Amino acid sequence: MKVLVINAGSSSLKYQLIDMESEQVLAKGNCERIGIGGVITHKTASDVKISYEKDFPTHTEAFKELVKLLSEGENRVVENVGEITAIGQRVVHGGEKFNQSVVIDDEVLKSIEEFSDLAPLHNPAAVLAIKAAKKVFGEVPQVAVFDTSFHATMPPKAYIFGIPYEYYEKYHVRRYGFHGTSHRYVSGRLFDISGQVKKENSRVIVCHLGNGSSLSAVKNGKSVDTSMGFTPLDGFIMGTRSGGVDDSIITYLMEKEQMSAQQINDMLNKKSGLLGISGVSSDKRDLTAAADAGNERAQLADEILCYQVSKFIGSYAAALGGVDAVAFTGGIGENDTSLREKVCEGLGFLGIEIDKQLNDKARGGAEMKVSSGKTEVWVIPTNEELLIARDTRDLVQ
């Protein structure tokens, strides 16, 4: 069985073709600049790399070109497109309706469209990709795997905001959480590889740290709290996002700077976080280089990030009634050894102690335990595509 995994943006189409018998990635790549030109980059399991410009007026043309790359020419990875058994689509928002992955039919597609108000940058792109895939692949089954579904197990005390309850009833304003596919994969992988922490009676904190970041509190394999909220803006500082702020700041700045709601939204999502504090970059690697060179604002941004992640770990330990393991993942979580050390250095009271030598080795895709204390600390590279492929296989077999 071969599953094509799709992660669509408004002008992009990331993909992986996975052989589910071996779970090997046969090919992966990205169709970019859809609607404004077109570029495709493609890589096979045999390390053949291809990149060229191609006009993609819509996602349909991108899918057609993808089919050619996968099934035609000397670098094909399947003999014909019929070998692709199913398509797994990453969908950011499933609202309160979808607490697990589902086979896509007309009713599911309609619901995904209806949730576009909750994820205006992401769900419309998923809808385009689903429709385009159907045009190209016909009746090949498609499965929707939702970023929000893993967090559907949160209790009301974790997801209801302290605003009039009528807005939850009328507009579904609540904490949804995101990065759920990553949190589910990493927590599940930890149960597989830890000699100590098993799913039953477990208390795990997953730190997904990248340009967008979130933490989750996972009890007995289920999410009971997470840092992102109604949108991916909530939580702690990220590359360009502010994380949680005093809401009165918004009306205060609107009055002082004569800013519109859209300008405020743009500022909080695209001009804040590490970029806004440091004035250097949203990329943690650039920030670290500037901090090491003596840039005080870059040093401050780094300190704030580490401090806030530590605070969330402490609060989630309280929510869980203790903690058995902490797992770091994402581009920053997997590769920034200094951040992991700084985040954990004040958490000894939770039994969290980093082994510096092990920690220094854990980067570049390494999967390893980096702790010496009672509470396990792991670095576990996420693999959202594989989890999407597994869900797809399980639902269509």
If you had to describe this structure to a student in words, what would you say it looks like?
- The chain has 397 residues and is α/β, with parallel strands linked by helices.
- It is 39% helix and 20% strand.
- The chain contains 15 helices and 14 strands.
- It has helices at residues 59-71, 106-114, 123-137, 156-159, 166-171, 180-193, 248-257, 261-270, 273-278, 284-292, 296-320, 330-335, 337-344, 356-361, 384-396, and strands spanning 2-9, 12-19, 24-32, 39-44, 49-53, 84-91, 102-103, 142-146, 203-208, 214-219, 222-226, 325-329, 368-369, 376-379.
- The strands form 2 sheets. It has an 8-stranded mixed β-sheet with strand order 5-4-3-2-1-6-8-7, with helices on both faces.
- The longest helix has 25 residues, at 296-320.
- The termini are close together.
- The mean pLDDT is 96.
Shape: globular
What is the beta-strand fraction?
A: 15-25%
* Mean of all residue-level pLDDT scores: 96
Strand order across the biggest sheet?
A: 5-4-3-2-1-6-8-7
Tally of separate helices: 15
Distance between the termini: 9 Å
- Per DSSP E runs of 2 or more residues, the count of β-strands stands at 14
Summarize the helix and strand pattern as letters.
Answer: EEEEEHEEHHEHHHEEEHHHHHEHHHEEH
Main pleated sheet: 8 strands, mixed
Structural class category: alpha/beta
Unreliable spans: none
Report helical residue fraction. Answer: 25-40%
> Taking Cα atoms only, what radius of gyration do you get, to the nearest Å?
21 Å
